[in-house]
Specification:
Blueprint lengths: L7 H24 L22 H5 L2 H5 L8 E6 L17 E2 L19 H9 L4 H4 L10 E6 L1 E2 L2 E2 L1 H13 L4 E4 L8 H12 L3 E5 L19 E7 L17 E4 L3 E5 L3 E5 L2 H18 L5 H10 L20 H6 L18 H6 L5 H28 L7
Helix pairs in contact: 1-12, 4-8, 6-7
Length: about 400
């Protein structure tokens, strides 16, 4: 009933309860979604391909480009070759090699099937957007160069040729190597090649494998510890069901409904962990351009340290260390340490996955502690309220 005035104890108790509720609201807002996981409208003109490149928006490409566009970095793309004549790739594709059957000579023609093309990855990494008077397709590292290698013979990727291509790419100065083909077996040739690339300062990236629906077998070279293994996510940040998951996954990246370049001046939309690996390779190129003296280990640790965690703050068998966050990695001015107890060019160790925690867990833990303390205070306050209320207060 109106007209009754609460006592001092009642007012104090209600204030404590209100404060606890407010803290709970703040805590929920901090932990409900990972930072940077939201989507926004693409800054594109009507009809521009940029408007369909949802991954660039998710990775905050515009923000990243204020710091780096990958200038001076060479990214090797190993697979079917790359169509160097595509309007969005002209001037970005160097002379590589055909170590498969030699039919493309320097790798600058793509003979892959519609679904499997090195040109897809080249567009994700270094698309310039120059087609259609500047409304073409943009890659995440548009000033990087692509070094193409073809490893096919009779429409089949050769493991030995893939190993040779990795070693040749490292010898030719590639700072990042994106391997778009895979094998279900851990070939000694492949292992030796990725170890050699790491020793030469080249970061090797590969899709974790599209085996999530068909037995979840590991793929190589992605499963080797020196390789950044990448799972695919959709627009909502959920892992694509076809992604391989397990102890070898290091990062996740956009890999569903990805628009990119295709051979014969075309474009293609596809899904898979290979597409996701392209974004991580491009992110590494941005970092290597900004920090040319960093080791493979330092680049790897920066990408994993700044990744956006989906739910857990620790490593996860589906997301790895989280979804790659290119802009956040470039904005982090701390110099990541080299892996202790092993060579500086070694990638993240499997043992690190269970011990790793995001740098943003500190504030969350503080808020959680404050919330808990206020809730403890709110309980006796509630009893004070109950004991001080008159019957008329309940009317």
């Amino acid at each position: 009933m109106a007209g009754h005035t609460a006592s001092g104890a009642v007012r104090a108790g209600r204030a404590l309860v209100g404060t606890a509720a407010l803290t709970l609201t703040v805590f929920t807002s901090l932990t409900a979604a990972p930072a940077g996981s939201g989507t926004g409208g693409a800054p594109a003109d009507s009809g521009s391909l940029r408007g369909s490149e949802w991954a660039l928006t998710a990775l905050k490409a515009e923000q990243a480009w204020k710091t780096s566009k990958g200038r001076g970095v060479t990214v090797a793309v190993i697979g079917t070759g790359v169509d160097a004549s595509h309007p969005d790739l002209k001037g970005r594709v160097l002379k590589g090699a055909d170590v498969g059957d030699g039919s493309t000579v320097d790798g600058r023609r793509d003979q892959g099937a519609a679904q499997v093309q090195g040109t897809h990855q080249a567009g994700i990494i270094a698309g310039t957007g120059r087609n259609y008077r500047g409304d073409g397709l943009h890659g995440l590292a548009p000033q990087a160069h692509i070094l193409p290698f073809r490893v096919f013979r009779n429409d089949k990727a050769l493991t030995a040729a893939t190993a040779r291509a990795i070693m040749n790419a490292a010898r030719q100065g590639a700072q990042v190597i994106d391997v778009t083909v895979s094998s279900p077996q851990p070939s000694d040739d492949l292992r030796t090649a990725v170890e050699y690339a790491a020793q030469q300062g080249a970061l090797v990236v590969a899709g974790a494998g599209d085996t999530g629906r068909t037995g979840n077998e590991a793929s190589y070279p992605a499963a080797f510890p020196q390789v950044l293994s990448v799972a695919a996510t959709d627009k909502k940040g959920s892992v694509w069901p076809g992604s391989h998951h397990g102890k070898d996954v290091d990062l996740a990246a956009p890999g569903v409904d990805i628009l990119t370049t295709a051979r014969n001046d075309g474009y293609w939309t596809g899904s898979g962990t290979g597409y996701a690996a392209g974004w991580v390779a491009a992110s590494a190129a941005l970092l290597r351009a900004e920090h040319p003296k960093w080791t493979v280990s330092q680049v790897t640790r920066e990408l994993t340290r700044t990744a956006t965690h989906h739910k857990s703050a620790a490593w996860d068998p589906r997301y790895g260390f989280g979804i790659v966050a290119s802009a956040a990695a470039l904005a982090d001015h701390r110099s990541p340490p080299a892996a202790s107890g092993k060579p500086a060019n070694q990638a993240v160790a499997a043992s690190d996955r269970t011990a790793y925690h995001s740098s943003d867990t500190g504030p969350t833990m503080v808020v959680a502690a404050v919330m808990g303390a206020l809730i403890v205070l709110a309980v006796p306050a509630w009893f004070l309220i109950r004991r001080s209320v008159t019957p008329s207060d309940d009317d």
